[in-house]
Each structure stands twice: as structure tokens, then as C-alpha cells.
């Protein structure tokens, strides 16, 4: 490679790296300002979100008494700052009381720190707090109903990923993420600008099917997952809007603006991807909640109930070693499934039974009682079934 090209490539890579990190932090601050609006809500305890909260506070309330007051001073020019204790402001109190109420009525989000326990804080802590913010349910509830009303169950199963045996959404986001990442690199490679434009357009087109599967999954999640999911979706919609604006600027010949919008869009998309990772790995949305069954179920015959104690045609909860199971008696035959639904761990023993299948009480997945086979989602995989036998009037189970 000629020295001049090597230098240009090196410069481009370094610039891209710096821009990416800058944009990512900008995205984090944007979310901090938009969704928390104040240092009380945890996000502001991080540097980036604190920056966002300070900006929001300055714009909304005037110079705020926050750690970044110097930033406000710089932005407001020579005007003398009058520091205000924002905790006394009614709107802040209102937001805070709304949050406190919601924390009392919602289960503590998985992994969320207890009140006053700052030792476990990390970048996911603001999202844990959002997960407990029931005010978002006013938005989520009608959206969930609308999505469920327009999705036929067969199509919904495909969108959930039943043919794959796991969620489809993560597979589809490869296209927009890959295209936008490539575009971000090519934007700074001489002679590749048209390719970057094309990749941005491809990414925007690929975002549509990814969004459709994401919304289908979202409509069958628990409330605390849906609250975080709303933030995830808002970030993605914002990223697509920024990319479209970037494309328009490029088509008009304003490449500088187009490239700048692309960098910001990539940062927002990266932040949204981080939130998606939080949903999948911290809140366990989309994972198989029966994956641990082989490690918990007894491999030897283990008594779980007396046959005489089991009512006919009624799901009953029992314990087989470390595994919670649901038993279902059909005459002399007893069926046993892992009790926690593979979709999101709903209690199958509280479900309803018809035509030899149990329907999960949480989101309606149906599993064959004899085999555990999946009849309909949103689960994407079968429910583990255990072998059963009756010895001396006792029902025994084991993993086959
Ligand atoms: S927990 Fe969602 S269908 Fe069972």
C-alpha cells in the first residue's frame, strides 16, 4: 500500500474509533436526559448520563446544582449562574413520587440493586430502574393489545422464531448492524463513499423485518421487560430516523452533514443494541427458561406424590429433587413436565388443560402433556417432559 494511502487509512480508522466512542457517549447522555431528566434516577450517577442530566436540568430549570455545573456555566456564557436546589421543584417531586409508587407495586427487577445499595451499580443500573417504572405501562398496554390484535397466532409463532427453535429477532438484526458498521468504516475510506451510502440504505431496509420480529416478541413479555423494550425500540427508531436524514443529506450533496448524522446514528444504534443486550441477558427475554432442566431433574426414579392424592384432570405442582414439576393425572396414567414454562418461566401448574395440552397462564404457550411438544408459542421450544411410573401407589419421575 502506498504510504499516502496507508496514512489515510490509519487516520480514518483512528478517527472512526474516536467518533464511535464519542457518539456512543452522546447516545447514552441523550437517553439519560430524555428518560431520567434528573440525577436522582440512577443514570445520572454515571458520567455520561450525568452530562445529559445537567444539560436537561439547565434547559428545563435553569442552571442546576449538579456536579457538572461548570458545563452549564460554559454553555450559558458570561451570565452569572444562580444555583437552584432542583429537589425542591414540584415537577421533580412528581416524577420521583411516581417512581417510588411504581417501585412499590412492581416486583423488584431481576438484578436491580436494593434501595441504598450502591455497591452493585454498573452501566445496567439505570435500565434496572426503568424496568420498575410502571408509568411506562400506560404506553405499553395499548401497544401490546394493538400488536396482539393484528398478529394471527401462526404468523406470530414464525416471528417469535418457532421454526428456528429460538428467537428470530437476534438473527435479523445482523443485517442492519453489519451494514451500518461497514458504512461507518467506509465513510472514511477514500473512494468508498457511494458504497457507504448504499450500506446505510441496506441497513435501513433491514431494520424493518428486525423491528417486526422485535415488536412481536415484545408483545409477549413481562411488564418490566416491556418497559426496557420501549427504550430499546425508541433508540432504534431514532437511529433509523437519523440514518434516513443522513441519506437525504448525502443525496443532496452535503456529505459533511450526512457523515456527521451517520456517526451520531451509529452511536444511538449502539446504545440501543446495548439495551437490547440488557433485555436478552440480564432480563432473560428470549432465552430458553427450561435450559437448566437437565441439570436439575433427577436421573434416577424419584417419588413426587401419592397417586391417590392426585386429582383427576387437574394440573398439580410437585417437586422432583431440585426441579419444580407439574403433574397431570389421566386415569392410571400420570404425565410430568418441568413446571416453569420455557418461554418466560410461567407456572404451568396454574395453566389450563384441554385436548391433552396445557396452556401457560402467562402468555398462552401450549405444550403436549405427554411429550412436552410445543403446539403454539410464544415459546419457541418444547417443554421438557419427564418419564413417570407408579410403584406401590407412589408416582415416580426421572429425566429420560
Ligand atoms: S411464560 Fe410466556 S407463555 Fe409461558
Nearest-integer average pLDDT: 78
Q: Biggest sheet: strands side by side, in what order?
A: 1-10-9-4-3-2
- Please count the beta strands (DSSP E, at least 2 residues each): 10
Q: Write down the secondary-structure element order.
A: HHHHHHHHHHHHHEEEEEEEEEE
Overall 3D form: elongated
Q: Tell me the major beta sheet.
A: 6 strands, antiparallel
Segments where pLDDT lies below 50 for 5+ residues? 1-113
How many separate domains make up the residues? 3
How large, in whole angstroms, is the Cα Rg? 26 Å
Structural class: alpha+beta
Q: Strand-residue fraction?
A: 5-15%
How helical, in percent, are the residues?
40-55%
Q: Roughly how many Å apart are the termini?
A: 61 Å
What does this structure look like?
- The chain is of the alpha+beta class.
- The protein folds into three domains: 1-22 and 136-287; 37-101, no CATH class; 293-398, Rieske Iron-sulfur Protein (3-layer Sandwich).
- The protein contains 13 helices and ten strands.
- The strands form two sheets. Strands 1-10-9-4-3-2 form a six-stranded antiparallel beta sheet, with no helix packed on it. The protein has a four-stranded antiparallel beta sheet with strand order 5-6-7-8.
- α9 packs antiparallel against α10 (193-218) and α10 packs antiparallel against α11 (223-251).
- The longest helix has 34 residues, at 3-36.
- It is elongated.
- Mean pLDDT is 78; it is low at 1-113.
- It binds FE2/S2 (inorganic) cluster.
- The site of FE2/S2 (inorganic) cluster has 12 residues, from loops.
- GO terms for molecular function: 2 iron, 2 sulfur cluster binding; metal ion binding; monooxygenase activity; oxidoreductase activity, acting on paired donors, with incorporation or reduction of molecular oxygen.
- Residues 96-118 are annotated as: Disordered.
- This is Rieske domain-containing protein.
- It holds the Pfam family DUF2231.
Amino acid at each position: 500500500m502506498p504510504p499516502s494511502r496507508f496514512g489515510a487509512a490509519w487516520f480514518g480508522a483512528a478517527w472512526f474509533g474516536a467518533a464511535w466512542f464519542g457518539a456512543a457517549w452522546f447516545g447514552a447522555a441523550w437517553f439519560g436526559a430524555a428518560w431520567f431528566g434528573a440525577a436522582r434516577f440512577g443514570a445520572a450517577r454515571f458520567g455520561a448520563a450525568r452530562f445529559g442530566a445537567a444539560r436537561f436540568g439547565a434547559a428545563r430549570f435553569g442552571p442546576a446544582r449538579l456536579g457538572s455545573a461548570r458545563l452549564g456555566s460554559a454553555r450559558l456564557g458570561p451570565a452569572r449562574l444562580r444555583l437552584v436546589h432542583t429537589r425542591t421543584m414540584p415537577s421533580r417531586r412528581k416524577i420521583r413520587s411516581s417512581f417510588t409508587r411504581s417501585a412499590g407495586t412492581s416486583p423488584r427487577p431481576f438484578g436491580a440493586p436494593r434501595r441504598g445499595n450502591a455497591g452493585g451499580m454498573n452501566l445496567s443500573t439505570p435500565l434496572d430502574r426503568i424496568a420498575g417504572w410502571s408509568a411506562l405501562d400506560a404506553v405499553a398496554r395499548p401497544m401490546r393489545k394493538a400488536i396482539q390484535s393484528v398478529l394471527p397466532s401462526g404468523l406470530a409463532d414464525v416471528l417469535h422464531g418457532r421454526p428456528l427453535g429460538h428467537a428470530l429477532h437476534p438473527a435479523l438484526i445482523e443485517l442492519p448492524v453489519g451494514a451500518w458498521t461497514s458504512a461507518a468504516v467506509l465513510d472514511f475510506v477514500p473512494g468508498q463513499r457511494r458504497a457507504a451510502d448504499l450500506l446505510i440504505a441496506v441497513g435501513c431496509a433491514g431494520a424493518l423485518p428486525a423491528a417486526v420480529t422485535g415488536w412481536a416478541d415484545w408483545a409477549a413479555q413481562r411488564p418490566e421487560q416491556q418497559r426496557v423494550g420501549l427504550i430499546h425500540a425508541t433508540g432504534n427508531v431514532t437511529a433509523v430516523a437519523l440514518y434516513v436524514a443522513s441519506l437525504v443529506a448525502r443525496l443532496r450533496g452535503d456529505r459533511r452533514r450526512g457523515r456527521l448524522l451517520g456517526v451520531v446514528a451509529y452511536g444511538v444504534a449502539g446504545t440501543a443494541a446495548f439495551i437490547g443486550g440488557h433485555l436478552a441477558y440480564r432480563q432473560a427475554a428470549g432465552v430458553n427458561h427450561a435450559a437448566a432442566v437437565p441439570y436439575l431433574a433427577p436421573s434416577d426414579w424419584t417419588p413426587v406424590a401419592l397417586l391417590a392424592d392426585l386429582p383427576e384432570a387437574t394440573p398439580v405442582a410437585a417437586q422432583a429433587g431440585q426441579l419444580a414439576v407439574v403433574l397431570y393425572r389421566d386415569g392410571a396414567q400420570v404425565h410430568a413436565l418441568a413446571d416453569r414454562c420455557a418461554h418466560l418461566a410461567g407456572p404451568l401448574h396454574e395453566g389450563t388443560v384441554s385436548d391433552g395440552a396445557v396452556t401457560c397462564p402467562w402468555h398462552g404457550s401450549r405444550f403436549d402433556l405427554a411429550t412436552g411438544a410445543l403446539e403454539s408459542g410464544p415459546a419457541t421450544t418444547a417443554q421438557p417432559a419427564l418419564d413417570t411410573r407408579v410403584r406401590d401407589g407412589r408416582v415416580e419421575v426421572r429425566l429420560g
